[in-house]
Write a structure and sequence with these properties.
Layout lengths: L9 H10 L4 H13 L1 H15 L8 H15 L1 H26 L13 H22 L10
Helix pairs in contact: 2-3
């Protein structure tokens, strides 16, 4: 037999050995191998210790568990009551945050008191500056374009 660590089916053999579902031939072969292989012997000992240390479950475990669940659900009715209004509020706050993130408010808008003419004046001045820049970039020997 190959070592449990090298065998592809080693985990299933180990589980079968611990549960007692292996055939007597396979069990004997595994025990003979473990007597010569220190790694497998240690692995069997550790696994057997883990299996032996599992505490016993009492016969009325299920009944006590369901009674405890029922008691907790009855005692904490107020928690469910507090969460009901909080969920839509949290959803609304999240939607507002996403909306502000996607479409941030524009901060450079002209004030209500500022007349519209000054905004138009600024745009005209920017256009004139752009035209002057274009004239500077044109070659000297070409005639200027007429409008």
């Amino acid at each position: 037999m190959t070592c449990l660590r090298e065998n592809l089916n080693g985990a299933n053999l180990l589980i079968g050995y611990l549960e007692g579902t292996l055939s007597s031939a396979a069990r004997g072969e595994l025990e003979r191998h473990a007597s010569t292989c220190a790694e497998c012997r240690e692995l069997l000992a550790v696994q057997q210790t883990l299996v032996d240390d599992v505490p016993e479950v009492s016969a009325d475990f299920d009944a006590r568990l369901y009674a405890r669940i029922q008691q907790d659900s009855q005692n904490q009715w107020w928690r469910r009551l507090l969460w009901r209004p909080a969920v839509p509020l949290a959803a609304a706050v999240a939607m507002m945050a996403v909306a502000l993130w996607v479409h941030p408010p524009v901060l450079n808008t002209p004030s209500v008191d500022e007349p519209k003419a000054s905004v138009d004046r600024v745009e005209i001045e920017q256009l004139e500056q752009a035209l002057d820049d274009v004239e500077l970039l044109m070659p000297v020997n070409t005639p200027p374009a007429t409008l």
